[in-house]
Specification:
This protein is mainly alpha-helical. 56% of the residues lie in helices and 11% in strands. Strands 1-3-2 form a 3-stranded antiparallel beta sheet.
Length: 122
């Protein structure tokens, strides 16, 4: 994705989490209200879902008179794009990467070594 990922507000993040949990299904606003275990107004959730559609994070299609939504990318793709955007904003990318890697738990560092094709071990 070439566009910059816009940060999510707390309700947007809850809606996206619920959408990713059902990413193979289109959800209506009513479905989302049921999943969100909050005391929210229908119009509030509808507005948030429409905003996420406008940001490119949800796709939508008509189902009768209502819109139904599903994620436009996986949770992992969103996380990777967010990480990439943060890295782009660093003054010194190499230094930022080094700090990031230094703070990784050992299992994540091992997975990264494996992905990069380097031998593991300390």
């Amino acid at each position: 994705m070439t566009e910059q990922i816009q940060p999510l507000g707390s309700l947007e993040a809850k809606v996206m989490d619920a959408s990713w949990d059902c990413e193979d299904s289109f959800l209506s606003v009513r479905n989302m209200l049921q999943r969100l275990d909050d005391d929210l107004a229908y119009t509030t959730v509808m507005t948030v879902m429409n905003r996420l559609y406008e940001k490119g994070l949800l796709r939508r299609r008509r189902s009768g008179r209502a819109w139904v939504y599903r994620p436009s990318m996986s949770r992992e793709a969103f996380t990777a794009a967010t990480m990439s955007d943060v890295l782009k904003s660093a003054g010194d990318r190499r230094s930022a990467l080094l700090h990031f890697i230094a703070d990784l738990p050992s299992e994540d560092a091992d997975a990264l070594r494996q992905l990069l094709g380097k031998p593991g071990g300390s």
